[in-house]
Specification:
Layout: E1 2-7, E2 16-21, E3 26-30, H1 31-36, E4 44-45, H2 47-72, H3 77-86, H4 91-103, H5 109-122, H6 127-136, H7 144-148, H8 155-165, H9 172-184, H10 189-208
Antiparallel strand pairs: 1-2, 1-4, 2-3
Helix pairs in contact: 2-3, 2-4, 3-4, 5-6, 8-9, 8-10
């Protein structure tokens, strides 16, 4: 038997209540777990009840951490599971948390893929960078084509980037640096060269004028 010596009356900043048992064992539990088990100072728990309490505490910990992760950034189900395990959650509880989030429609790989692509396009990245982001977020490839099918023409954003990087009389080193920066942003060499030629034509027209 394990007897509860003390149960805090106020939660910590993470919303958990500290439970101290005889012998110095402590647990931090969310309010729902405390209420589900009817915990109070002086309550004695059997070994089976303690095992159930630990399991419930782990489940709630993984679920609350999953909510915090999803609130902070777009994640796929595989990415969420991986992050939970890296944060110390039990793999079984992590999988339960992912399923729970899916049931609440808070994790949707198809929608996450679309959001990632929209964000990359808005930042002026190339399609290669968008694919890299999908890979890094562990988005299943079955959703890539659908997310990328409306990829916008980025020629104006490439031109805008070049105008911001190149002065009125750029030398070859300046051009190379600008091109390398655009390649890192995921744009193709062909698209960059085309924008370079257009910028050169604009400079000539301005000079002739």
């Amino acid at each position: 038997m394990m007897r509860i010596e003390q149960l805090s009356t106020k939660p910590d900043r993470a919303g958990r209540y500290q439970v101290r048992f005889e012998g110095g064992t402590t647990m931090r539990l969310y309010r729902q777990t405390v209420e589900d088990f009817g915990l109070y100072a002086g309550l004695e728990l059997t070994g089976a009840q303690m095992d159930a309490l630990r399991d419930a505490a782990g489940q709630m910990s993984a679920r609350m951490r999953a909510v915090r992760i999803v609130t902070a950034s777009n994640v796929s189900r595989d990415d969420l599971r991986s992050r939970l395990v890296r944060k110390g959650e039990d793999p079984r509880q992590a999988e339960d948390a992912v399923r729970w989030m899916e049931e609440l429609s808070l994790v949707d790989d198809r929608e996450t893929a679309a959001q990632i692509v929209r964000n990359c396009a808005a930042k002026g990245y190339g399609i290669a960078r968008a694919k890299q982001a999908l890979y890094e977020k562990r988005i299943p490839k079955e959703y890539w084509e659908e997310a990328l099918e409306d990829w916008p023409d980025q020629s104006e954003k490439i031109l805008s980037f070049l105008r911001s990087r190149l002065g009125p009389e750029p030398d070859e080193r300046d051009r190379k640096r600008a091109m390398d920066a655009l390649l890192r942003r995921g744009h193709s060499y062909g698209d960059i060269r085309q924008a370079m030629r257009q910028l050169e034509l604009e400079d000539l027209e301005e000079y002739d004028g």
